[in-house]
Write a structure and sequence with these properties.
The structure holds 2 protein chains of 2 kinds. By secondary structure, chain A is mainly α. Chain A contains 12 helices and 2 strands. Chain A is globular and about 75 Å long.
Chain lengths: 292, 283
C-alpha cells in the first residue's frame, strides 16, 4: 500500500474511533431526550404539581389520577430496608475477605460472590415466589408473603456483589504503612482494621453503598414479581407495595400508545433516570476522592 | 463485661466469618434448590420441543434459540463500538472536557436502570425507527446497556499493555494505528474477550429491557428474521411463573435451571479464557 493510501485509510479509522467515543455521549443524551419528550406530552395535559403531590396512582379510573408519591414511597421503603440488610453484611464480608480470610478461603468466597452476581434477577424473583415469599408469610403470620420485606431481602442479595467488591477494593488500597503504624503502637489486627483501615477507606465504602442504592432502586423484575404490585402508600414494609420500576414494567403493556397513561409512565422513567444519575454521579465523586 | 484486646479480636473475626457464612449459605441453598427441583423435568424433549397446551407442556426450544439470537445480536452491535470507544479513550484522547464528558457518560450509562433502557429502546427503536417489536430492537437496547462493561474491560486490557511496546513500535516508524493494531490489540485481546463474555452473560439474563422490545408471550415457532419477535428464556420464566395459572412448577424450575446453566457456562468460558491467556502471557 502506498504511503498516501495508508494515510487515508488511517484517518478514516481514526474518524471512526473518535466517533465511537462521541457516540457514547450521544446515547446518554438520546435516552434523556426520549424520556423528556414523552414526559412533556404528559405534563402538557396533566399538572406537574398534581403528579408530584397526589397520594394516589389510579391510571384507569375516570378521571385518572397520576400521583407519584405511592410509587416513590414504595421504592424508598424497599430500598431502605434492602440497604439496612446488605450494608452491614456487605462491609463485614469485605472486611473478612480483605483482612482476615486465608487466601484459599478468599478465593472461594470471591467465586461465590461472582456466582451471586451472575444469577439473573428473574430467577431470584422466581425463588421469591416459590420459597421466600411463603417463608416470610409463615414467619410474620401475615396474609401474603408478596410484600415489601420479601423484595428487600432479595434486593439486598442483589446489591451485595457491588458493595462487597468495591468496599474490598477500598480496604485493600489503604497503604500498608497505616497498619504498620497501628501495629507499632501495640494495636491488634482487629483494632488496626476497625480504627485505622476502615476509617481510611470510608470514601470508597460510601461510594460502594451509593452504587448499591443505585442498583436497588433500579432493579425491576424482583420487585415486580414479589412485592405484591399494589400502588398504594404502604403503612408498613410487611404490606404489598409497588416501586417506580415495577409500575413501568407492569403497566406499559396495557397502555394505549400515545395515551395519557403511556406518557405518564415515561415521566416515571424520567424521574428514575434523574435519581440514578445523581446517585451515580455522587458515587463517582467519592470513588475519586478515595483514589487520591 | 470487658474483654481484653486479644479476645475481642477473636470475637470480632468470628463475627466477620459468620457474616460471610450468612451470605454464602443462601447462595448455595438457592442453587441446590433449583437443581434439585429442576433436574427431574429437564429432559431432551424439554430442550428440543416448543411449548404446548398454553405452555403447560412441552419444552422451551424457541426460548433458548431466541436468547442465543439476542446474545449474538447484542455482540454484533456492542463489541465493535465498545472496543473502538475504549481505544479512543486509552490511545487517542487527551485530558480535556470531551474525554471527561465521555467518562461521565459511561458512568451514567452503567447506572441507568434496566427498565429505563427498556423504555428508551421501545421509544427509539421500536417506534421512532419503526423496527417494531423485534430481535433487532432488543439487540440494540441490550447492546447500549452492555457498552459500559465492555468499554471498562477493554480500557483495563489496553492500559495493561506496557508503554514500551508502543514506544518501540512508534520508534520503528509505525503509525499510531499500526502500533495499536499490531502491538497493543493482540496483547489485550484476552482481557477484551473476558469482559465481553461477562457483559453478554449479563445481557442474556436481563428481562426488563426486552419486555417491550423483543419479547413474545407465546410464539412456538422460531424467529424468521431480525425483524421478528422472539421468545427468550428470562421472559419465558417470568411469564410461566406469574401469568399462567396452575403452571406445573417443575417446568418453571427446569426453565430457571437452563437459564442459570447458560449464564454460568458463559461465566466459566470467561474464566477459562482468562486462565488460558494468562499462561501464554509474554511479558
Amino acid at each position: 500500500m502506498s504511503p498516501k493510501l495508508q494515510r487515508i485509510k488511517e484517518s478514516i479509522l481514526e474518524f471512526f474511533i473518535k466517533a465511537s467515543g462521541v457516540l457514547i455521549i450521544l446515547f446518554v443524551i438520546l435516552i434523556f431526550l426520549f424520556l423528556l419528550k414523552d414526559s412533556l406530552f404528559f405534563f402538557n395535559s396533566y399538572s406537574l404539581k398534581e403528579f408530584l403531590t397526589q397520594g394516589k396512582w389510579l391510571p384507569i379510573s375516570e378521571p385518572p389520577i397520576f400521583g407519584i408519591i405511592p410509587l416513590l414511597l414504595g421504592s424508598i421503603y424497599v430500598t431502605f430496608f434492602a440497604i439496612i440488610i446488605c450494608v452491614p453484611l456487605g462491609i463485614g464480608c469485605a472486611m473478612f475477605i480483605a483482612e482476615v480470610a486465608p487466601s484459599f478461603l478468599k478465593n472461594i468466597l470471591k467465586s461465590f460472590i461472582e456466582i451471586l452476581a451472575a444469577i439473573p434477577s428473574v430467577v431470584l424473583g422466581f425463588i421469591g415466589i416459590v420459597w421466600l415469599g411463603p417463608l416470610v408469610k409463615r414467619i410474620f403470620s401475615i396474609p401474603t408473603g408478596m410484600c415489601g420485606f420479601t423484595g428487600s431481602i432479595l434486593l439486598a442479595f442483589m446489591a451485595l456483589p457491588t458493595i462487597i467488591s468495591i468496599s474490598e477494593d477500598a480496604l485493600r488500597s489503604v497503604p500498608y504503612t497505616y497498619k504498620e503504624a497501628a501495629f507499632g503502637l501495640g494495636a491488634t489486627r482487629w483494632q488496626a482494621l476497625w480504627r485505622v483501615v476502615l476509617p481510611a477507606a470510608s470514601s470508597g465504602i460510601i461510594a460502594a453503598i451509593m452504587l448499591g442504592i443505585g442498583r436497588v432502586i433500579g432493579e425491576t423484575m424482583v420487585v415486580m414479581m414479589v412485592t405484591g404490585n399494589s400502588p398504594v402508600i404502604p403503612s408498613s414494609i410487611l404490606e404489598p407495595l409497588r416501586t417506580l420500576t415495577a409500575t413501568i414494567a407492569s403497566e406499559m403493556g396495557e397502555t394505549v400508545r400515545g395515551g395519557l397513561h403511556y406518557f405518564a409512565l415515561f415521566s416515571v422513567g424520567l424521574i428514575l433516570f434523574i435519581i440514578t444519575f445523581i446517585i451515580n454521579f455522587l458515587a463517582d465523586l467519592f470513588l475519586h476522592r478515595s483514589k487520591k | 463485661m470487658k474483654f481484653d484486646a486479644k479476645t475481642r479480636e477473636k470475637l470480632a473475626f468470628f463475627i466477620l466469618g459468620m457474616i460471610a457464612l450468612i451470605i454464602i449459605l443462601p447462595i448455595i441453598g438457592v442453587i441446590a434448590y433449583i437443581i434439585k427441583n429442576g433436574a427431574t423435568a429437564l429432559t431432551w424433549e424439554f430442550l428440543a420441543q416448543p411449548p404446548r397446551n398454553g405452555m403447560k407442556e412441552g419444552g422451551i426450544f424457541p426460548a433458548i434459540i431466541g436468547t442465543i439470537y439476542l446474545i449474538l445480536g447484542t455482540m454484533v452491535f456492542s463489541l465493535p463500538l465498545g472496543i473502538l470507544a475504549a481505544i479512543y479513550l486509552v490511545e487517542y484522547a487527551r485530558e480535556n472536557w470531551l474525554t471527561r464528558t465521555i467518562k461521565l457518560a459511561i458512568i451514567n450509562l452503567s447506572g441507568v436502570p434496566s427498565i429505563v433502557y427498556g423504555l428508551f429502546g421501545f421509544a427509539m427503536f421500536v417506534i421512532f425507527l419503526k423496527f417494531g417489536t423485534s430481535i433487532l430492537a432488543g439487540s440494540l437496547t441490550l447492546a447500549i446497556m452492555s457498552l459500559p462493561v465492555i468499554i471498562t474491560a477493554t480500557k483495563e486490557a489496553l492500559e495493561a499493555v506496557p508503554k514500551s511496546f508502543r514506544e518501540i513500535s512508534l520508534s520503528l516508524g509505525a503509525t499510531r494505528w499500526q502500533t495499536i493494531r499490531y502491538c497493543v490489540l493482540p496483547y489485550s485481546l484476552p482481557g477484551i474477550l473476558t469482559g465481553t463474555v461477562l457483559a453478554l452473560s449479563r445481557a442474556a439474563g436481563e428481562t426488563a429491557p426486552i419486555l417491550f422490545t423483543v419479547a413474545a408471550f407465546y410464539l412456538p415457532r422460531l424467529p424468521r428474521s431480525i425483524f421478528d419477535q422472539a421468545m427468550t428464556l428470562p421472559y419465558h420464566l417470568y411469564v410461566i411463573s406469574t401469568q399462567i395459572p396452575n403452571m406445573p412448577l417443575s417446568l418453571s424450575f427446569a426453565t430457571a435451571l437452563v437459564l442459570i446453566v447458560l449464564v454460568f457456562l458463559m461465566n466459566l468460558l470467561s474464566i477459562i479464557l482468562r486462565a488460558y491467556f494468562r499462561k501464554k502471557k509474554l511479558w
